[in-house]
Design brief:
Length: 206
Amino acid sequence: MFTGIVAAVGRILTVAPLAETTDAGVRLHIAAGGLPLAQTRLGDSIAIQGACMTVVELQDDAFDVDVSRESLDRTCGLNQPGEVNLEHALHMGDSLDGHLVSGHVDGVGQVTCFEPVGESTELRIIVPAHLSKYLAYKGSLTVNGVSLTVNRVDDQEEGTEVSINLIPHTVQVTTLRGLEVGSSVNLEVDMIARYVERMVGGLARR
């Protein structure tokens, strides 16, 4: 479990296939970029661009994770070198400054706007249609592992466009600073919304 509050921006240094087959996953070697690793152990979970991965190798300032082909097919940004948002798993007693994030990417969205508005930045994303029902005004949405608040929801034929206001601090300390129109982003909808759907759907079938 995570909070969507990015602890550090690391960098994928190498991407190595786990086997010589088209359906093979990859091993990522990641520079921690200031993420504290002193208390990290093999088998611990770290969110990378919003996707929960397991540490399989560990160094003082870097770590490795294995990413399956299924995960590669359902995410973006984990198949090539580059900057990534990092967050350790939540511990009991930690402050929940963002919202409850599972680290299971629900879909990949496309950036339609990334431009300054006053002192902030407006980020607009087209969210896949199957996730539209989980989006709400002032609801939570995780974008590349960052907990964000939705300011506007606009349903369209190809999906739903959400508008998000990014304060300067968020842009400066996350990989969101590198977004542009056309960029792909990992999305995770609010966990509570999924449970509400399940409960309401169950009642409707009775």
